[in-house]
Amino acid sequence: MIAPTESLLKYDTPQLVSKNTEKSPKYQPKTRPLKRTPHQPITSGPVPPPPKPHSPSSDAIKQQTEEILNAILPPREWMENNQLWVQPVSSMPCTRTDVMRLQEDLDLKLQQRQARDSGICPVRRELYTQCFDELIRQVTINCAERGMLLLRVRDEIRMTIAAYRTLYESSVAFGIRKALQAEQGKSDTENKIEDLENEKRELERQVNEQKAKCEVIERRENERRQAEEKKHAEEIQFLKRINQQLKVQLDAIIVPQK
User: Fold this and answer.
1) Tens digits of per-residue pLDDT, 184-207?
2) Can you spell out the DSSP letters for 182-206?
């Protein structure tokens, strides 16, 4: 594991846990041992009143705060030279100067890492997440309940962002799928258009052939009709001449008899 980079979340000094990580137990926050009360003999005298509850000491409050911080903001762990290092978050209270310095560091890192001012930017999201974790740490030191509430708000924001990310990824996948379907449909349509154009050209060729046949048939029929009309006219002229000759012969036969 590579040593962690700088973060806006304030950490304590790294601690060396063990040189052999396979046999060493996982790092656990320091806990105070439980104090056992010595066994008191039973006396036959009157029972003394119970002792008044003592207010928790500052060490107990600090220990509880560290446990809460380690629970909501786990320590960082990394390997360096075959040694396991652990760096828990700092439990030192913050001042107004620390908050102002945090704001300056946030602006500086946004500028150094060239985060976008608007839109989706993983760098800006990461830096603001670190800043929010640092605010949770600062608030938890002063009031653990308020820190737990901020942790709940942070988790809800993360769930919402994760839901939006899932929705975005699904919408992108849906868009890509629809684009591929449209591209495939476009290819099918182009193939269908090409087939229809080929069919159209074939039909046009057949129409031209039929037109040529019709023209040949019409020309042949016109020639035949003209030939028949000419023949019919010649027959009529022939019959008229014969009729005229017969009429002349008939007149020649009738006139001498008178």
Assistant:
1) 888 888 889 999 999 999 999 999
2) HHHHHHHHHHHHHHHHHHHHHHHHH
Phi, then psi, of 52 in degrees rounded to 5: -70, 140
3-state DSSP percent of the chain in helix, strand and coil, to 5 = 65, 5, 30
Q: Convert the pLDDT of each residue in 54-68 to its tens digit.
A: 455 677 777 877 888
User: Which strand ranges, in their side-by-side order, compose the sheet holding 76-79?
Assistant: 15-18, 84-87, 76-79
In which band, very low, low, confident or very high, does the pLDDT at 44 lie, cut at 50, 70 and 90? Answer: very low
Q: Residues of 20-38 as b/e, b for ≥16 C-beta within 10 angstroms?
A: eeeeeeebeeeeeeeeeee
Note whether 84 and 27 are within 8 A (CB).
Answer: yes
Asked if 151 and 133 touch (Cβ cutoff 8 Å), the reply is no
CA-closest candidate to residue 150, choices 166, 133, 164: 133
